[in-house]
Amino acid sequence: MKHAPFIAVEGPIGAGKTTLATMLAEELQLPIVKEIVEENPFIDKFYQSMDDWSFQLEMFFLCNRYKQLKETANEFTEKGKPVVSDYHIYKNLIFSERTLKGIERDKYRQIYHVLTDDLPKPNLIIYIKADLNTLLKRIAKRGRAFEEGIDQGYLQQLIEDYDAAMAELADSPSKPHIITIDGNAVDFVENQEHYEEISSQIKELMI
């Protein structure tokens, strides 16, 4: 890899992004950027009424992630220092394209590009791909109250949206290297060999 790695771990809700990102950051002794989720003041209301609270929810996430990535650029990527993140800023478009409609979606797209077009983009993405049953089990296991009763149709659509998004990112100007993990078969938490297979791929790219 020509430049210091900016590693992003991505996947649908419940895929295990933060867990894997944390494990990699600890082993590789890299700083980690974690997205703010539970601190979003609109998240409970969103899951109760997506149509009423989508714009507020998405704007909160966008502004916080923008701030995080500006700080990441100043402290790490612009200085050639590697870093791990448990999200790619592109996820904002993945979610907003599904939750927003009409004028609100158009406005959001404009704001997204104004804020993010000059932000550093990950050059290595670890994409955890998993089916609906796997995600539901992991969501139930972590026990976030606001995710109880999450709409399965919404989650299934996100699975499909993530597949499409990864294909788009692969052809994007930044052309990141994408490692896809089968989250249905690979358990990087309980199976050390599974985790080591993932970390060894990343180490080879960092040489």
UniProtKB/TrEMBL annotation:
Residues 7-205 form the Deoxynucleoside kinase domain. Keywords: Kinase, Transferase. One of its GO terms (molecular function) is kinase activity. SUPFAM superfamilies: P-loop containing nucleoside triphosphate hydrolases (SSF52540). Pfam families: dNK (PF01712). InterPro entries: DCK/DGK (IPR002624), Deoxyribonucleoside_kinase (IPR050566), DNK_dom (IPR031314), P-loop_NTPase (IPR027417). It comes from the Bacteria. PANTHER family: DEOXYGUANOSINE KINASE (PTHR10513:SF46), DEOXYNUCLEOSIDE KINASE (PTHR10513). This is Deoxynucleoside kinase.
